[in-house]
Amino acid sequence: MKNNKNSIITLLTDFGLDDPYVAAIKGIILEINPNAHIIDISHHIISHDIIEASFILMTSYSYFSSQSIHMVVVDPGVGSQRRPILIRTEKYFFIAPDNGVLSYPLARERLELVVEITNTSYFLEEMSSTFHGRDIFAPVAAWLSRGVAAQEFGPIIKDFQKIAFPLLKSLGNNQWEAEVLHVDKFGNIITNIDQKHWLQFQTESHTTSFTMQIGEIQITSLVKNYLEGKSQKLFVLFGSSNFLEISSYCQSAAQTIKAKRGDKIKITFI
Fold it and tell me: At what angle do helices 138-145 and 21-32 cross, to 10 degrees?
């Protein structure tokens, strides 16, 4: 058995950092593979929120080198009949419960193999029904990083849970309906409008002027960076995730608008 050339293992959980859960996972990984490089994406996902986890993973996983192992433990169904799965794509590995948490990043990947993790010889000997992150996912990620082939962990499957990414909706008359994907720590409201669709809207409407309606608030200004919008209460810009954000300079746009994920946004090009 050989160590993988790249033994990066990323962790994304809703465990927080006040309890010993993250430390236990890291301890198991390092006991099996002391050469593993463990990177924390986040441990502050809202408890049980698989959609938030999927979004955070989608906007971070591709910045890691090829063959990195992305382990996600946001698992409200732990201990039930939901399956633990291992997915190999053209560039990465993903380990997670089969509850749809991998949906957003996998929509961007070319899948090669999906395995239901059943081979108990790679689990901890003493199993808890409430902590599969430690007892199943962590040791599997560690053994995978040491070069164990994905097929060794269980049978190949064709079906797994998927959550549809929110699509933009045409309303006709140069109008579209978008929605809030995520609200970040700074109160930026991240929408499901990417630059490609924004340029498409402009081309079809033959104009760059627009109004954006969210709740009772209208926004009409697109800027290049946060400082450029300093003189305005609210503005939009394309953020680092390549999605259009509603923002307020050094303030929380989400608090100003009282926005939350799933809220509808109407865009009219005029």
Answer: 30
Q: Which domains does the chain have, with CATH numbers?
A: 8-153 (3.40.50.10790), 169-269 (2.40.30.90)
Residues 112-167 have pLDDT tens digits of: 999 999 999 999 999 899 999 999 999 999 999 999 999 999 999 999 999 999 99
φ/ψ (deg, to 5) at 200: -65, -45
End-to-end CA distance of the chain: 63
Is pTM, for the whole model, over 0.85? yes
Greatest Cα pair distance, the chain, in angstroms, is 64
Residue 4: pLDDT above 60?
no
Place of tokens 């053994």: 143
**Digit-coded pLDDT (tens) for 69-95:** 999 999 998 878 899 999 999 999 999
Q: Which of 66, 75, 64 has its CA nearest to residue 41?
A: 64
Q: How far is CA 161 from CA 33, 132, 144, 157, 228, in A?
A: 30, 18, 22, 12, 42
